[in-house]
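Our collaborator T.R. sent over the components below with a one-line note: 'Predict the complex.' Nothing else. No constraints on interfaces, no templates requested, no preferences about which chain binds where. So this is a plain run: every listed entity goes in together, and whatever single assembly comes back becomes the starting point for the next discussion.
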Amino acid sequence: MHKLKLTSSALELNLTEVEKRIRRFIKEYVENAGAEGIVLGLSGGIDSSTTAAISSLSIGGDRVTGLMLPEKETYNSKDINDAKFVAKKFGLKSQVCDITPVLEGFYKTIPIFDQADKLCKGNIKARTRMIYLYYYANKLKKIVCGSSDKSETMMGYFTKWGDVAADISPLMDLYKTQVRKLAEHMGIPPELAAKPATPALWPNQLAETELGIKYETLDLILYGLERFMTTEEIAQQLSVRKTLIEKVKSRWLAVEHKRRLPLTPKLEYRTVGTDFRLPRHTY
Amino acid sequence: MKKKVKLALAQISSKREDKKANLQKIEEFTVKAKEQGADLVIFPELSLTGYVLHDQVYELAEVIPGPSTKTIEDLAKKTETHIIFGMPELSEKTKATIFNTAVFVGPNGFIGKFRKMYLPTHSVFEEKRYFRPGYQPVAFNTPVGNVGLFICYDIFFPEVCRLTRLKGAKLMVCISASPAVRRSYFEILTAARALENTAFLAYVNLAGVEDGLQFWGGSRLVSPTGDLLAKAKYDEEDLVICEVDYNDMRPAETFIPTLRDLRPELFDQLKKHSETL
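Returned assembly:
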């Protein structure tokens, strides 16, 4: 549990136990919420495939709705086929909604819309997918299950109120490389588990290229930071430049705003987001 | 005092903030345990209210004895059993000073209580934010034996357990709300505390999930030589009936004479050095 030697074995998990704990978490949450089931996005990537698989194993595939939400700029038939494969293998219901017309509506009607700013434009895609997921959840009396992992959550590599928006995020305490192992453990084919990650905000966008680091290294750096190791210790153990560790650390700390409720000034007796501490009820 | 006592490890999952539902469950488990011959039924830490309470603890805490303990006293009388359970205790002298307390009742009413001494405030725990610590280890001489009480994180501090033993406890009862990531620590410490004190140790943990925190269950009875005599299921609710045979203590104490070999002068050193950590 507290192995401080930064090799790939530090990230090893008892996958049977982890799968059991996540399944129990999902099942209890859905039951306590009185929900009919789960809605999730199915991109054909490893995180959403794993979320779909474990959701189906937790509550039965017939109660899980997987939405494929392609759009023309990032359309990739392999992703759609992979998503369909996962839906079939784990017995969940799936539906395809082409979000292109909705996106074009945004592009046309936002007066300051800038076609060249691919990040702002890409974020519209992530937030539009969120709206579809929540529409289905509302309509079908289900909850939205997110697929964010710990690596991207720590790095803030997600769209605020976009892909991260969900009622539960059962993989958020697992690093990307751990998600891949869990995926294989649950029967997702290795080639799908090893597929390069992409948020699909623009064509040919690759997570590792954008982050500037391989997940195998990033996960070990984050593992060290999580355990209060100094940047010097991490750099020495991984034989990488200290500046790289510092860069990762600064980014991790700088994006805490993306992981919290909006901040408000402390004016009254108890304040939402700070000292208003209430148990979370799902029922 | 009975030489052999039947214990029920009542590993329940509590419904948070719902004392009525939990009292009902405590009654169901007690009745079921009694049907199987139990003399003492043990429920987990904060089993009356659930563990993850945050600010709601101010609404849920009660004085002891108080309405909830009265209900459980009546249950103990009706079923002629002894019952140990956990609840947030409001100080009689203040309006918002709360303790994390274990309550002990029997067929003749209220026996006593123990206020948790070590309040975890790290990782997912924030007990010092809400609770005042207790100051006294306790042991109660009852028809089911001399019973020492402590709660969860107290088990990490051998002196709490040792003091219950030195006060006469032969059965040490640890009620708990331990999340799954800490399971291995408790599996080691329950055996160690029983062995080093050559006394029985009953550990009763919560089951279920509260706010993402998964309690691992795994309640158990450990012998004075550290052996596992009974064990409840991991993670799920369970009711395990097991037996404490106090006759087993003498051979254990002679084989492992830790109490005979106690060195009181070391405790002075312990005090001195812990003050200067």
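Summary for T.R.: The mean pLDDT of chain B is 97.
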